[in-house]
Description:
35% helix; alpha/beta
Amino acid sequence: MSNKKKLLAISGSTREKSSNLLIIQAIAKLMPEDAELEQSNGIDTLPHFNPDIDYDNPPQAVTDFRDQIQLADAILICTPEYAMGAPGSLKNALDWLVSSSSFSKKPVALITASLSGHKAHASLLETLKMIDSDIDESTSLLISFIKTKVNEQAVITDAEALAAVKSVLAQLFTKIK
């Protein structure tokens, strides 16, 4: 059994070759030796949130997602902005967590990497605070014009963006108990 700290990474984009997935892959290369990154897959397969089926017997996909969150020491969300807001699949996944304590006091880093990203970033910060995650400015990052800052080999090519990502990652790991 591994004693490594477990970081669960969630991409807000469902695209196979999204910039946000590339950022997650770049972060996987930056992980400290005492930590491992696991990528959460399938937020796009979660059913539409329905509070009527949330409490007694939620769908298996929801239970599995909540278990992934619960077992992680920290969460990394890396997301684009769609139509001036959070991607629907990511917002839906977070909605499924509202009634659970999965995110309560859980250290979370939010990286919004998009053309602009300001509106999605602000909205997601409010949602993450509402579900009682441990997030603050030190673990929150907005990377605008992302396509000019990461390449197809999952290398962050912009020195300022790379330094900011490293700082967020370091701050996130200081929050893990």
